[in-house]
Design a protein that fits this description.
The chain is built from 15 helices and no strands. With 282 residues, the chain is mostly helical. Among the domains are: 95 residues, no CATH class; 56 residues, no CATH class.
Length: 282
């Protein structure tokens, strides 16, 4: 079975351009750029069109390259992007493609990563036991191979599905493990989400006093990283806590500015949740 560092020259055939474009898509997602500006993974894999409906050069198209590893790679990050947006069905579709191609080509890295994404999509669709088990298996496979690449992000997925299943102790443990890993690898880009999930788990376990510093830390992480999508999520969580505390004005001050920053992409689940909270605060 082949393990490799994704994007390394010479191991993905002609997919270097695809790697660049779809990596940009994931970054744009966290930074809050709207869907039509960053869904380049789908276009790179299938339509050959770039952002703003600009045709992508032929070499950017995984399907035209005829290179299965490139198609799997584009599909992998398509799944990542939809997972970041909370779009379960779309993430599942891409993850299925990744798993099929990774198994066919015997590529362990894409298989393990695809399993985490597939487990998240399955779990958030209601099959929580199956989803949690698949993410755990993926994490175990990666650990056995000595890989900790993106492990904090996968642990955040595990925390989210555990919380969805109301298994809050397990969600808390997953978030804590993710933060521990990021502290040793300096892979801090997902700390905001891990702190937020930790706060949500503590809140459900009856510790509002423990949840507040987690949310405040998550908010600082997101703002320091200028990750607007992640900041929005934390603002919603902290805004809901402030609302329960009777601090409605403070809740509005948290949510309204970041919500207004998004001039487009108002169809995302996070923005819908933010606007619903703001309406309730009127």
């Amino acid at each position: 079975m082949l393990w490799f560092q994704l994007g390394q020259d010479g191991l993905l055939g002609d997919s270097g351009a695809i790697s660049s474009r779809i990596g940009t898509g994931e970054v744009h997602s966290a930074f809050g750029v709207s869907h039509h500006r960053f869904a380049v993974a789908h276009r790179s894999r299938e339509t050959g069109r770039g952002g703003d409906d600009v045709p992508a050069p032929r070499e950017f198209r995984a399907d035209r390259i005829g290179h299965p590893e490139s198609i799997a790679f584009a599909s992998l990050f398509g799944a990542f992007i939809h997972q970041l947006r909370g779009e379960r069905a779309e993430a599942l579709e891409y993850a299925n493609t990744v798993l099929a191609l990774a198994r066919e080509r015997d590529i362990a890295t894409q298989l393990a990563w695809g399993m985490s994404l597939h487990g998240w999509a399955v779990g958030m669709g209601g099959q929580t036991d199956d989803g949690i088990a698949e993410i755990r298996e993926s994490l175990a496979v990666q650990q056995a191979a000595g890989s900790e690449v993106a492990r904090p992000q996968f642990l955040a997925m595990l925390a989210e599905v555990c919380a969805f299943a109301q298994r809050y102790d397990e969600a808390l443990a997953a978030a804590d493990e993710g933060l521990r890993v990021s502290s040793t690898t300096s892979d801090h880009y997902w700390d905001s989400e891990l702190r937020r999930f930790k706060g949500e788990a503590l809140l459900r376990l009856g510790s509002a006093s423990g949840a507040e510093p987690c949310f405040l830390g998550a908010l600082a992480d997101a703002r320091n990283g200028e990750a607007k999508s992640l900041e929005l999520r934390v603002a919603i969580s902290l805004g809901r806590l402030r609302t329960k505390e009777g601090k409605r004005g403070e809740a509005r001050e948290l949510v309204a500015p970041i919500c207004e920053w998004f001039a487009e992409g108002s169809d995302t689940a996070d923005l819908v949740a933010a606007k619903t909270l703001l309406d309730a605060l009127e």
